[in-house]
Queue: 4 jobs
Job 1
Amino acid sequence: MLLIILLIFMIAGAIIALETKNLLSAVIAVGAVGAGVSICFLMLGAPDIAITQMAVETLSLVILIRATISRDLTHVTAQKEVGGLIAIGVFMAIFVLFSTFALMEIPSFGKPLMTVSSHYVQNGLAQTGASNIVSAIILDYRGYDTLGEATILFVAVAGAIVLLRKKGRKKVGEKDE
Amino acid sequence: MNKPGMTLIVKTIVRISTSLILLYGVYIVAYGQLTPGGGFPGGVIIGAAFILLCLAFGKEVALKKMSTASASILDSAGALIFLGVALLGYIWGTFFLNFFPNKGIPFHLWTAGIIPLCNIGIGLKVSVCLFGAFIALVLFRVAKKEN
């Protein structure tokens, strides 16, 4: 029941974030959605993801508010186009249709049927020695995935620092080739 | 008041709370194999402590604590620790092998073989990465204002 209330709260926050004209209010509404997602994870028994969601949410809000919103860009005045709205409607209809087909096939909520995950749960403590099974999975059994994620973050931040640096590498008089 | 940063109240609170936030982040990283948490959220919390310093005291103070050069070095070091631990498994056979023969007593701090090492690497990497991204965006904004 509380989960449904939280979901309604999050949907309302998302709609407010889309529709409001003030960019700062939109960022704060997105933050409310993130906090709702975090409480949802906590209620569904995933404290690892809840901690990560809360920390990343707070940090990304601070970065968005402080570092990207400049003073002359806080109000959005652009109008929405009709063709774009029609395209969004068509693609959403296709997405909902196919996802309905897909969702009929998956096992019902909270029902562990997968053999791989039951193997992890039964042998995880003995094989890795980690009492937090999430750590055992993401850093031992599925360490390759985590390496990929770390590489993504590394490349993204390296690109951001290279693109946004203050001084260029070129000398003053040098020309483009 | 020509000093950069926020008011005296904010500075005092930040001065007290930053060390506690750092300690909490280190705790989350170090106990990642025992309790919920791990390298990524702990790293984000440590990075947030530095960003809090940067917000409250201005970017010069934060850059004195962690300059851009040392940030890039630590970032690469964290990534290399993680990749190196993964590659060390090749000595015993496969990629990402948990190569410690004795996993230790469960529910004690130094258990679980390579998992704490990976957590420390990821925590180092993520914290410095996010601080670096924030500093890059702030410097970009300052440079735009000067033009």
Job 2
Amino acid sequence: MSIKVENLTKYYGEQAAVNDISFEVKTGEIVGFLGPNGAGKSTTMKMITTYLTPSNGKIFVDGIDISEDSLAVRKKIGYLPEQNPLYNDMNVVDYLVYAAELQSIDKSKINDAVKKMIKVCGLEDVRHKDIGELSKGYRQRVGLAQALIHDPDVLLLDEPTSGLDPNQIIEIRKLIKDIGKQKTLMLSTHILQEVQASCSRVIIINKGEIVADNTTEALQKQFEGQYKTKLIIKQNPKTDAANIKAELKSIKDVEGVKVSSDDDNKTWIIEITNSKGSDTREEIFKKIVSKNLELIELKQEEASLEEIFRKLTN
Amino acid sequence: MNFRNISTIYRKELKSFFYSPVAYIIMVVFLIITGWFFTSNLFVMGLVSMRGVFDVIPFILLFFIPAITMRSFSEEKKSGTIELLLTKPVTDMEIVVGKFISNVVLTALTILPTVVYVVSLSFLGRLDFGAIITAYIGVILMCSIYISIGLFASSLTENQVVAFIISFLMIFALFMLNKVLMFMPTFLVTILEYISSDYHFLSISRGVLDTRTLIYYFSGILIFLLLTKTSLEKRKWS
């Protein structure tokens, strides 16, 4: 089961929400669809689920053109929309039965399917409660349960953890990871840890265009070796920020220096960017000591996904 | 069209009417008003006739139908559940027809208790059962065409109040057409008369049920159901 998107474009009036994007999600992959708010993630997902029709381009799910047999495609897809809309006045079991019937599951198998979902998604305690009474975490589980009830091969989750508290986020992530083992899974988010925690591949989208499409590791590698050194020095009346900046800049392989003062003017916080692949910690230390300054902290950071994301989408 | 899907939607919709108190309130109000006209006809005027009840029903329907249909699509649009529904392997027309049937059944359930009036009258005097049955058919047909209009109005907006007002105005216009004929140019009179819902209802309640009337109701229902479907599909192109 794969998803293939070719030259997909969607206009809202004059504005292109999604502009000529192409990508492929292979069977069994867990792909993170990452982008700032309003980048076109949801619009793309809505087109894959056949809720919206593309202005241009084609989408294939498991080789089927969604514009030709949209019902067949919908049977293969489990979808959790953004905001997780649910019928608040139905109880959990009734709702799951309804979802199962809409997926044309065999009448004799509906009970088993519902029971299984209640177990997998951990809904035993709330099975007879109205959905409107549930906490956000449980609502999200119900949303996942309805998306999974027909055991779809393709799962599309639009911001599955938004609005949850940290504990619920961890639970839902774990659930997604368990479920995602046998499925082709695409999950959209604007939170980076989400991708790092669950996805093997990441597609970064910005202003309707794909800016990066690679495995999580490869993306990190692309920017790897670019270190940032952070140091904190006690302020000293004998010297000033500009002076220190100049001194540090004179070190070989240092590309940029940013000096700022902390709130009560006791320390300087300095950020140093190095040229690729170089480590300047030793020289920095020697320099600081030679100037008779007191070093409080010195640490080196590798470019994180977060920085890559910011670089790509700014 | 897949009948299983229609029946799934129909059952869910009918149940969900009874999750909220609105359905009960509307039913009670309906029965109070028709009951008032029944008793005043019987005890004040001493008539053994369903006339009073059938005369007032078209007026009640003007408010009654918009009130039950207004939430059909608006609520799903507002809460976003429409997105879930429309991405399930169900066609838009199956959804529309399922919701239509559930509304028709709810109105039929509301009207059903008025059969008690007929039964009690039958002890008091001779009734023309043929005419009464035809009149009931007429009421159901009138409800059905109004419901299809109400569904269309509900599919246009996510605001239930707006849906109520739109469907009330449309139904009111359809109802009033044969009452403003004297102000219309002569060449339009027959057309407007044919479009008017009350004109057909009057002829049915007189006991006349001809194909002209049936074609009117069924084509009207079909047109508005198709319009509703088109309005749902609009999301794809906007």
Job 3
Amino acid sequence: MAQNSSLMSGVPELLVLRLLSAREMYGYQLAVAIRETTREAISLGEGVLYPALHAMENRGFLKTRRRTVSGRTRVYYASTPKGRRRLNELSQEWRRIAGGVEWVLAGI
Amino acid sequence: MPGGRFAGLSERLRRAGISPRRVRRLISELEAHFDDLVAEFRLTGLSQAESESQAANRLGTEDVLAESVIARPELRSWTRRWPWLAFAVLPLLSLPVQFVFSMAAAVAIFGFSVHTLGMTPLHPGPVPWICEALQAYALWIAPMVAAAGACYFAARYRASALWPLVGSILIAILGAHTNASFQWSPALPKGAISAGIGFRFPDIGPAIGFRVLLTLVTILAPFLWVRRRESRCSLS
């Protein structure tokens, strides 16, 4: 599904923070969770997740830990208190925008 | 990771100023993700080749992956933002730091020899020899270590040759004007050690010129040769 990049701005961050607020995950698990929870309505180039995750970690929204599972070292990401505050802000902003669009659509 | 699936991406990211450590982690995460996707597609009955092709599509092309990282300036290393600091100023500052460590090492070895090994002025053991070695280190080796550090890290971070070049020249000049002395004397009752560092500046002479040239030729010649070879390889 083609994505409008300006419309989608901030959505990956919101999705990642929401999913990681429930439990820690490594990149592939996160990509699968995004596919499943959005019913594939949102398709990200899955490799693009990693720079976003690294940037969020840099900003203190995520923390990481390495775990070796089946002989492979995985980097698990989890939300931090700062990340949860950021999630609240983004959620409110998203609901405000989605509500506005809903009003417009309902009026046509 | 040379020769790996993401070798080209790794080199592009390093040339764009992403730190080698972050590149290593990104590549390792992408490789793990790729393997997971291949396993996922294999479960649907696709062949290995088809699964790898689908996994590559799902992950994104090298261009898309590279752009997604490069577009985030916060992922660039500090050496890209302040190359003058990383490859000129800090290596230059490492020179006095090395002198101080050399002095501390001389004092520690002397103390150990006197208090633990029971060294006396008549039986000084290796102390005079160590003093001469530390003096040679401070005079000849320390500038080379500092310049080599600047060049090594610049090569590792795929930085421009400008700042390591400037740093190495400054280090060679400063190092050549340094006069270090580590001396042991058989003074009673336990012997004595003296250490001193001084700068003769400006002092132009054949000895100074030789020391400057020695540092520059030893360090910069291989560095510039490697850089030239790398740039030829990346063009071909």
Job 4
Amino acid sequence: MTEPVEIVRVQGLRKEFRVLRHRGGVVGAVRGLFSRSGRTVRAVDDVSFAIRPGELVGYVGANGAGKSTTIKILVGILRATSGSVRVFGRDPHRFRRQNALRIGVVFGQRTQLWWDLPPSESFQLLGTLYRIPARELRARRDELVDRLGLGAVLDVPVRKLSLGQRMRCELTASLLHAPDLVILDEPTIGLDVVAKEEVRTFLRKLHADRGTTLVLTSHDLGDIERLCSRVLVIDEGRLLHDGDVESLRRLFGHRRILQIDLRDDAAQGRALELPRGCEVLEQSGHRIQLEFDPDQIPAPELIRQVLVQREILDLKLQERPIEDVVRRIYRGDRREGD
Amino acid sequence: MAGDLRVWTRVYGAMLAASVREQMSYRGSFVFELVGRLTVTGLELVALFFLFQHIESIAGWTKWEVVYLYGMASICLGMGEALTTGFDDMPELIRSGSFDYVLVRPLPALLFVLGRDVKLRILGRSLQGAFAVCISVMHLQLDWDVSHLALLATSVICGVTVYAGLFVASAAQCFWTVESTEMFNAFTYGGAQMTEYPVSLYPGWLRSIFLYVVPVGFVSYVPAVALLGKTDPLGLSPWGVWATPLVAGTFLGACLFFWRLGMRRYEGAGG
């Protein structure tokens, strides 16, 4: 079989779920037993895209936008309602087990590791499951363990690991069989800043060294911005945007938000003097939200300037929420802030 | 498929080994749990002995014959339970979404779930059942020949098959309702309790359920009648012995079909 040029090809993909309507009261409950009436929800609606070998694609959307449904269709867990889906040139649902040998999947916030066993034993079991020759398994495991700094936790039962340690073990588990396509569904969800950065660095290196095709869903724009070369944005099941990260950055300007809690009321006294590339987003009581462009004014510098002027109780640095980006795409903003 | 089975056998073996290792590291709790299970099920046997201090026989079955039935029920339920420990946390697997991980493996989901968790300590019930069968057989002084052994083996294999099928069907029910319901327990634990006594004891409708719908009664009663040389008021005996594997196989098939239906539902709706 000749390998198709694209690893993934999705055309006119649609996925509908039936949601049963809940009626109140005893009568409603009885009627619910007999009637099959319900609402049809379109989780994915006429989505088309293709992914070529070696691409690093971010799949972005708010919660419930249709990201996970698409992912589940790509790995063959769910059947598409209509449209055509090909992964490695095959229908992923019909050839789920064959494709599984070439796909690595990470679902954030769930575990594929055996809870009561140490990771090393999970890796061994997965090696058997994916028919990896013993020597190959050991070599790959050692390399991943080394890169992810897992040496110390290899023999600790999984239930005793921190979320960050566990996520790095999950990554190892998903990559043992050297998959050609790696799909990561919210791989950084719930992780702290340091753990997030470790995962990102690892993925970037994996892509650079092996040229592995990566598809990554996230509602954290930081993940997408720092990792991906191409971004798909989905909202309410429809594909809103498909382009390189630069084009998305033009949409949201890769601005960040600094939230400050002041000791005094923000409106009192002299107005805050702000540097170029920074403006007040919202201000109420003791809290003030600044939006800034880190290229013009780095975060530490901005914080220093505010500190000189006011007494600060607390600080929080945030990425622009994904909902914001989606809203801007709808409004058709091509440039912002200038 | 043959390749799948080889991989599955190796995974199953590895899980078994991991289970032994794990239990060795908690030797104390392993012993406690095993002894605990032996005691609980052992008390049932003691109760049976006290019952027979007041009566001679039940529906024409003597004490040691009933002990044999009781032992067989325990062996089959215990092994059926032990074989399917991987299904124990199906509600949790589905609720947490971890079942998706099952579906991205290069093995049929059923085999993977079956092999992903093996708990040996569950075997306590079977050990105690084997003990009951041994002492009953010693007291009954049967003339053992190959046909008796074949009957015993058939009875155990078919019994385990039916109970394992029930546990799989019980897990498959989670595809529709995530809350675990007690419905299937009526047939597994309840069924084992019913078949501790000859099914000829029960009224027709109840008997029919455990003979023909959920055949835990069929696979225990019919071979026992033949093995112990009883007269069978139900007239199932001569042909029924040959039908036993067929009955067990058909029931397992129905349970697996129920699992498939559940899987189809999951693939359509995504849990």
